[in-house]
Write a structure and sequence with these properties.
By secondary structure, the chain is α/β, with parallel strands linked by helices. It has two domains: 2-384, Alpha-Beta Barrel (TIM Barrel), CATH 3.20.20.210; 412-756, TIM Barrel (Alpha-Beta Barrel), CATH 3.20.20. The chain is 44% helix and 12% strand. It has 26 helices and 20 strands. The chain binds glutamine and zinc ion.
Length: 758
């Protein structure tokens, strides 16, 4: 069994890629220096993997910005609308597609399957040509760098089916058509790699895990059969899948002539095993077994892998198969080395450690028992760790009853009570929570964190900011105010730091998109709230004004989806634990006189499983987690929620079941679509479709906001239920913009009230 990986973290040990990109964009380094240093980084990653024991090393998994963009760039199909100045060279152009410029809005970005990595969505129109075969360049360079090393290189291509799915073709017919146009270009690239001596080529087709497009996939199979027949003698092709099982297509895919099929044996373990046991595998077909989790940060339980391998060995000859992570390693941080995570550190494995695990697993498979024993001991110890089992949390989880998930009073009744208590006009105005996080705010936070100013000084500073923002909102004439979130860096980190069961790395960065990286918290133990988390700030804000101030919390599902989560208990249970902790916070806020509480769930949609059959169960517990958080309050306390970056179509009924009194949602960028969804569903609670796009610097004129609100009314949202708010939090904007935008928004609401009565 050989060891291979499917992709390596691009950003580098210390986010080198990020800093190179940023200094290049700021023109601090020139083109030559930038490209030279990027090549050095790639080389380092290749050599490192070779040193660690990877025998078949991926090439072309690196990218200056994003791999889908690179693929589109290769096929000349990134987007026809782009216009460039005559002096622009290819590198300038490349970044314009990714980031836009004065003339060209950037290409859209969206999530890569169910990960937190965002890829660039090319604007494909069905025409393709080989614009620039960068893959061949990468391969040739890598060959030079690894000369003399006993390793094989494996160019990694995004398969045509997955590529077109990611480009969002409208229909299967178009998909089939475009695939036939793309195929010759794809084959040209393959041909060039084969001629250059590539002994392995990995073709990524993770879109197969959706199990859809029977017709298109059949066609795809025909193409692959030809490809394997033509080039398979010189080169071993891997059909690589990940993130889920491929049982829907496996029976046919084994007949496409591939030398290897790569399977996710972590997330797709059960279903893939079942499918394998039902499928007759052709002589000579090998597997790439993704046995180490590429999506999470925990050590691998070797015994489990050995059991898996023993089972498989009965069916196929494993000696020529390969062991791999279950996906690219770009979704986990670089290395645990250098972290300071105390009791949980021994249980963690990031990219480098995961590769070492693969090497160990092979040794164990070949009979090394001491490694196996050590691994068993590790897991025995972990099972007994007190942090995993907090009796008080467990007791409360057991005691949950249906009434804990239910407000007890229907919305119509709550609505009347809230109206009276909050004394709100028609078309109430509010914001989503955060206000500009200026240089000053960030500097003070840094000073506080590094101990250069005292806690008291920091709190005094935050209090001053809260006073200012309350006065600011009163002057503008907003109806429901917020405290501004100045004390928060990140909406998940802030809460994670205050709860038990969360750990934070120093350097555990993963790429979010381009040069942007995030450092997700690690949920390692039972979650609880030792003390109130937001009450001081919110109460203080409420003391400054007669108008209602919204309490502001991040929801349990969002906290879960933006963290690395323990796997010894179901995700649902972790979500409920977080919900219980937040529920206490909600009740504490109510106790100190807060009348409206917002629980943000921007990431609820993105946790939706890739397999249709798993979605209902997810939505069910996701909704329940929200309800557990919020339904302890009195009927007159108004519960808000906020969602963004969502495609609400397929989750609208779940949104309604969350039973929030008011929902604010991103709308400005997708306009009508979203409203239609809500209308068709007959959404019957308060709704605030964002009236302007906070991602842009542009100040929306009154007429435009008015028109948008009128459109909401025309499309059937009842005037009593319509709220007026921006799209999302204002933390990335500056004060003058915010002032002008919000006063236009308030003005629009006033005009509407004149027209439609108070
Ligand atoms: N309350 C948060 C804010 O305003 C919501 C952020 C989000 O939806 N991503 O910043
Ligand atoms: Zn938002």
């Amino acid at each position: 069994m050989k060891i291979t990986t499917l992709g390596f973290p691009r950003i580098g040990r210390n986010r080198e890629l990020k800093f190179l990109l940023e200094s290049f964009w700021r023109k601090e380094i020139g083109r030559e220096e930038f490209l030279k240093k990027v090549d050095a980084l790639k080389k380092e990653h290749l050599l490192l993997q070779a040193d660690l024991g990877v025998e078949v090393i991926p090439v072309g998994d690196f990218s200056l910005y994003d791999g889908v963009l690179d693929t589109a760039w290769m096929y000349g199909c990134a987007g026809k609308r782009f216009r460039f100045s005559p002096s622009a060279d290819w590198l300038d152009k490349y970044f314009v597609y990714a980031r836009g410029d004065a003339r060209n809005p950037a290409l859209e970005m969206t999530k890569w399957f169910d990960t937190n990595y965002h890829y660039i969505v090319p604007e494909v129109d069905g025409e393709f040509h080989l614009q620039y075969n960068w893959m061949l360049d990468e391969f040739n360079k890598a060959k030079r760098w690894l000369k003399g090393r006993k390793v094989e290189l494996k160019p990694v291509l995004i398969g045509p089916y997955t590529f077109l799915k990611l480009a969002k073709v409208e229909s299967e017919t178009t998909l089939v058509e475009w695939m036939s146009a793309l195929w010759p270009v794809f084959e040209e690239v393959v041909n060039s790699l084969v001629s250059a001596g590539a002994r392995y080529i990995q073709i990524d087709e993770p879109a197969l895990v959706y199990g859809r497009d029977k017709k298109a996939v059949k066609r795809l199979g025909g193409y692959y059969r030809d490809l394997n027949a033509r080039y398979g003698k010189k080169t071993r092709f891997v059909l690589q899948t990940y993130f889920e099982s491929v049982e829907e297509h496996l029976p046919e895919a084994v007949k496409w002539g591939f030398a290897y099929i790569g399977l996710d044996m972590v997330r797709g373990r059960e279903a893939n095993l079942k499918a394998l046991s039902r499928t007759r595998l052709p002589e000579g077909l090998r597997l790439v077994l993704g046995v180490v989790d590429g999506r999470n940060v925990w050590r691998t339980d070797y015994s489990q892998v050995i059991t898996l391998l023993k089972g498989l060995a009965k069916k196929i000859d494993l000696s020529n198969s390969m062991l791999s992570p279950s996906s690219s390693l770009q979704f986990v941080p670089y290395t645990v080395e250098g972290e300071d995570l105390g009791e949980i550190q021994p249980y963690l494995a990031f990219a480098i450690e995961k590769i070492k695990e693969l090497v160990d697993i092979r040794k164990v498979w070949r009979g090394n028992t001491s490694l196996l024993r050590a691994n068993r001991a590790l897991f025995k110890r972990l099972e007994r760790e007190a942090f995993r089992n907090d009796p008080e949390v467990r007791r409360r989880m057991k005691a949950l009853s249906p009434s804990d998930f239910d407000r007890g009073v229907p919305f119509a009744k709550r609505f009347a009570l809230q109206k009276k208590l909050l004394n709100l006009p028609l078309f109430p105005t509010t914001t989503i929570g955060s206000f500009p996080q200026t240089q000053e705010v960030r500097r003070m936070r840094r000073l506080y964190r590094s101990g250069q100013i005292s806690e008291l000084a920091y709190q005094v500073f935050i209090a001053e900011k809260i006073r200012e923002v309350i006065r600011f909102q009163e002057e503008l004439g907003l109806d429901v105010l917020v405290h501004g979130e100045f004390e928060r860096t990140d909406m998940v980190e802030f809460f994670g730091m205050k709860m038990k069961g969360f750990a934070f790395t120093k350097n555990g960065w993963v790429q979010s998109y381009g040069s942007r990286c995030v450092r997700p918290p690690i949920i390692y133990g039972d979650v609880s709230r030792p003390a109130p988390m937001t009450v001081n700030e919110i109460r203080y804000a409420q003391e400054q004004t007669e108008r209602p101030v919204k309490g502001m919390l991040t929801g349990p599902v969002t906290i879960l989806n933006w963290s690395f989560v323990r796997t010894d208990i179901p995700r649902k249970e972790v979500a409920y634990q977080i919900a219980l902790a937040l529920r206490e916070e909600v009740l504490d806020l109510e106790k100190v006189g807060i009348k409206a509480i917002q629980v943000d769930e921007p990431a609820l949609r993105e946790g939706l499983p890739l397999k249709a059959r798993k979605r209902r169960a997810y939505l069910d517990w996701a909704v329940k987690s929200f309800r557990l958080t919020t339904s302890g309050v009195r009927p007159e306390t108004q519960i808000h929620t906020h969602m963004c970056y969502s495609d609400f179509n397929d989750i609208i009924s779940a949104i309604s079941e969350m039973d929030a009194d008011v929902i604010s949602i991103e709308n400005a960028r997708s306009r009508g679509e979203l409203l239609d969804v809500f209308r068709e569903y007959r959404y019957d609670k308060c709704i605030g479709p964002g009236v302007y796009d906070i991602h842009s610097k542009r100040v929306p004129p009154v007429e435009e906001i008015l028109e948008l609100l009128e459109e909401c009314l025309r499309r059937g949202i009842k005037k009593e239920l319509l709220w007026v708010n921006p799209d999302c939090g204002l933390k990335t904007r500056d004060w003058p913009e915010v002032k002008r935008s919000l006063s236009n928004m308030v003005e629009a609401a006033r005009i509407l009230r004149k027209k439609y009565g108070k």
